[in-house]
Design brief:
By secondary structure, the chain is an alpha/beta fold. Helices cover 29% and strands 21% of the residues. The chain contains 15 helices and 17 strands. Strands 3-2-1-4-15-14-13 form a seven-stranded mixed sheet, sandwiched between helices. A five-stranded parallel sheet has the order 5-12-6-7-8. α7 runs parallel beside α8 (209-218).
Length: 465
């Protein structure tokens, strides 16, 4: 949303993310569940971002939810993967408590098989599967099993459970958010240097741009357009064999396919962390089930089983998982209650045409650069897992919002319209359609594009004559 903020074209986008964080950090909100007219029973499999989001939406609307989690605690990647310097445990627990207080029941250490899914589908009105990604991907390169070569997600999990000591030179392989987390965590675990190897360019890295900037700010060095093709060591990995990569023709996604050349070099190291991503295999589904359009089918019969988050779409970010969990839960609820069409409309993206930068009268506003988050310096970050971004000092950043497309009663239309056409009417305005000549001055001068002018129909014109 910040990338689409109209103020970006003026003096910098509104710091929306940090404003939302400020509200969460300073709100004592205690949610109260609604009383549903026809309460339903739902089972949610997976206690990660998508499952928590789905459970929250259903419980908030007064339905009974039982959340089945394979591990000993809720959170998924929020608890086991994202480092504490980005998401402190107490902040995560605060949000989990808000969800649980809605009456969500939990079952831990409940790793379910295909028979269990069939049973849940029969026992509950609806089943939402939010199990995240599947097994990690591997390179399949020679020497990958050497001691010192570790999966990045295992490393991040170990670092969340307790102190992990690294030494010497660390090489991280991958270009996503998990790879960035591995690199930044390795620095905090004592690595003397960290290099991140990725087969494409910096601009093509799937990691969030700000996370890449933060890693470089802390001292991580990027080694781009290189592909590991082997690992060398005697008892422990000592170097990575890197092949140069050239961009080839576009693939089905439109990205230029990386072409690995035979030009290689050695990159010395003491530890290698592999963050290559995970697959989305569905081979654990009950026999006869298949997924179509995010829902389970048995032959030509749709089942009351829906899939949300990474196991459904593989988007790979917490934000997408939360959003998809919300939409899937509401769509499932609508189908079960028999109000599918209305719910789909309510939960779909608004079809309104967004206000473009060219529709905003920048001259109406004063230049006011964004308020920046308070950040710890690199020298402090590398010695601690304390949160490194402390957010905004206050809510003043909200005053920078243009309120695009929304009337703020600024009286600009009243000033520029001919006398008597527009007048104050309580908290809004009254337009005298009989006296309006359609000059369009009010619409043209509205600084936020909150007004529209439409041509009258013949019936309307005749009624005004």
């Amino acid at each position: 949303c910040m990338q689409g903020c109209n103020r970006q074209a003026f003096d910098g986008a509104v710091n929306i993310r940090s404003l939302e964080r400020w509200i969460a950090d300073h709100s004592a909100l205690d949610l109260t569940a609604e009383v549903a007219e026809a309460p339903k029973r739902f089972a949610v499999v997976g206690g990660g971002p998508a499952g928590l989001s789905a459970a929250y939406q259903l419980a908030l609307r007064g339905h009974a939810v039982t959340l089945h989690e394979a591990g000993p605690a809720l959170g998924g990647v929020l608890r086991n993967g994202i480092p504490a310097y980005r998401l402190p445990p107490d902040v995560l627990q605060r949000d989990l408590d808000r969800i649980l207080r809605l009456g969500v029941e939990t079952k831990f250490n409940a790793r379910l098989n295909r028979d269990d899914l069939s049973r849940l589908q029969a026992e509950y009105d609806g089943l939402l599967v939010c199990t995240g990604f599947g097994p990690v991907l591997r390179l399949g390169a020679e020497g990958e099993a050497l001691p010192g070569v570790e999966q990045g997600l295992d490393f991040l999990d170990r670092a969340k459970q307790g102190p992990v000591a690294l030494h010497g030179r660390v090489v991280v392989v991958g270009g996503g958010n998990s790879a960035i987390d591995c690199a930044r965590t390795a620095l905090r675990c004592g690595a003397s240097s960290v290099k991140l190897v990725y087969r494409r360019s910096r601009e093509e890295m799937p990691a969030i741009a700000e996370e890449i900037d933060a890693a470089e700010f802390e001292g991580v060095r990027l080694v781009l357009q290189r592909q590991p093709v082997g690992f060398v060591g005697n008892g422990n990995v000592t170097s990575v064999v890197l092949a140069e990569v050239e961009p080839g023709p576009p693939d089905a996604s439109g990205r230029r396919r990386p072409v690995v050349t035979d030009r290689t070099s050695l990159l010395e190291c003491d530890t290698v962390l592999l963050a290559l991503g995970q697959n989305t295999a569905m081979d654990w589904l009950p026999e006869g089930w298949e997924v179509r359009g995010g829902r389970a089918w048995h032959g030509e019969t749709p089942l009351a089983v829906w899939f949300a988050g990474d196991c459904a779409n593989g988007d790979g970010t917490v934000t997408h998982a939360i959003g998809h969990g919300r939409k899937t839960a509401l769509s499932a609820l609508a189908h079960i209650l028999g109000t599918a069409d209305a719910a789909i409309v309510q939960t779909s993206e608004a079809e309104e045409t967004p206000v473009a930068p060219g529709q905003i009268r920048f001259s109406h506003f004063e230049v006011a650069p964004p308020h920046r988050d308070k950040e710890l310096p690199p020298s402090v970050r590398r010695n601690s897992f304390d949160e490194c971004n402390h957010g905004l000092a206050g809510p003043e950043e909200a005053e920078r919002c243009f309120s695009c497309g929304q009337c703020t009663q600024c009286d600009t239309c009243l000033i520029y319209s001919p006398a008597g056409v527009i007048a104050r009417n309580g908290d809004g305005y009254r337009i005298d359609a009989d006296y309006c000549k359609g000059c369009g001055m009010c619409v043209a001068e509205c600084p936020r594009s909150a007004m529209e002018m439409h041509e009258k129909s013949k019936q309307e014109v005749n009624s005004c004559l």
